[in-house]
Amino acid sequence: MKLKLAYSPCPNDTFIFHAMVHSLVDCEGLSFEVTLADVENLNQGASRGEYDVCKMSYHAYFHFSQQYIMLRSGSALGYNNGPLFVTSDTNSLLKEDGSLDSELLAKSNIAIPGELTTAALLLKIIYPQIKHTTPVIFSEIEKRVLSGQFPGGVLIHEGRFTYQKKGLKLIADLGEKWQQISQLPIPLGGIAVLRSMEEGLAHKINRVLHRSIQYAINNPGISKDYVCSYARELEEEVINKHIALFVNDFTLDIGSKGQEAVNYMFEKAIGYGFVRNRPSNLFIL
């Protein structure tokens, strides 16, 4: 059976999917028609039900959870790996003493990596005074903030490892702020399947993905060429740091603590009026 599978070109995704899309593990008769795209494009594709299996932001999932259900394997979720809110000297949101200029922030237009990204949701929760945001492909945000086109932007993926070298200044680690609020890991994104899918097939996909992740962890060098062929930052150190940060025990299985974190964020989003009611089961059982 061939399934439409979509994930991002970021190192953590190409790392965990490499073995299954190259049949290096038992795929139980499954094969995959693969689409790689920026996470916000994946979110938008999921909104139209274009994929059988799809990486999506948890924020997007909160909007589409009537249509999709999350697998237990494959999530990008953890501690100290959240989006970064940055500015530059060109058009700074920081005062001379280094503190945030709250009045200027309220008037400013902030670059976000997509309306449905978890980064956008965290920014809204932590800085409710921000009224103006513009979606920008994540790989362009550093450049546009440095040029002064935006006084601030939210970085995801490899940006957290490169922003200082490029001359950007940290306003806040949104992940740290979230952890202070919740005392829980940060749910960034996960792998979802269509709810219309037969339950046995959903569990089969989860088993195959779990094998693929475990294979990648046990054989980290085998996927190197595949990962590097899609990575935005080509420095091996950056790629390795990226994978180490976003692929962890929660990726193998979301676990009870991970589910608690997703539930908590969903309830927060409902409480702020960003999303509507949630289904009873967010993950396959």
Structural features, described:
The strands form two sheets. Strands 1, 2, 3, 4, 5 and 11 form a six-stranded mixed beta sheet that branches. Strands 8-7-9-6-10 form a five-stranded mixed beta sheet. It has 13 helices and eleven strands. It has 285 residues and is of the alpha/beta class. Helix 5 links the parallel strand 7 and strand 8 (132-135). The mean pLDDT is 94. Helix 1 crosses helix 10 (224-230). The protein has two domains: 2-79 and 186-271, 3-Layer(aba) Sandwich (D-Maltodextrin-Binding Protein, domain 2), CATH 3.40.190.10; 84-182, Periplasmic binding protein-like II (D-Maltodextrin-Binding Protein, domain 2), CATH 3.40.190.10.
SSE order and pairing:
Elements: E1 2-7, H1 11-21, E2 31-36, H2 39-47, E3 53-57, H3 58-64, E4 68-70, E5 76-78, E6 84-87, H4 102-107, E7 109-112, H5 118-126, E8 132-135, H6 141-146, E9 152-155, H7 159-162, E10 169-173, H8 174-182, E11 186-194, H9 199-218, H10 224-230, H11 236-246, H12 249-252, H13 255-271
Helix pairs in contact: 1-9, 1-10, 2-3, 5-8
Could you tell me the mean pLDDT?
Answer: 94
Record field, number of beta strands = 11
Approximately what portion of the residues adopt beta-strand conformation?
15-25%
Helix content: 40-55%
Indicate the radius of gyration in whole angstroms.
18 Å
Secondary-structure element series: EHEHEHEEEHEHEHEHEHEHHHHH
What CATH calls the topology of the largest domain is D-Maltodextrin-Binding Protein, domain 2
Question: How would you name the CATH homologous superfamily of the largest domain?
Answer: Periplasmic binding protein-like II
Category from helices, strands and their pairing: alpha/beta
For the record, the count of structural domains works out to 2
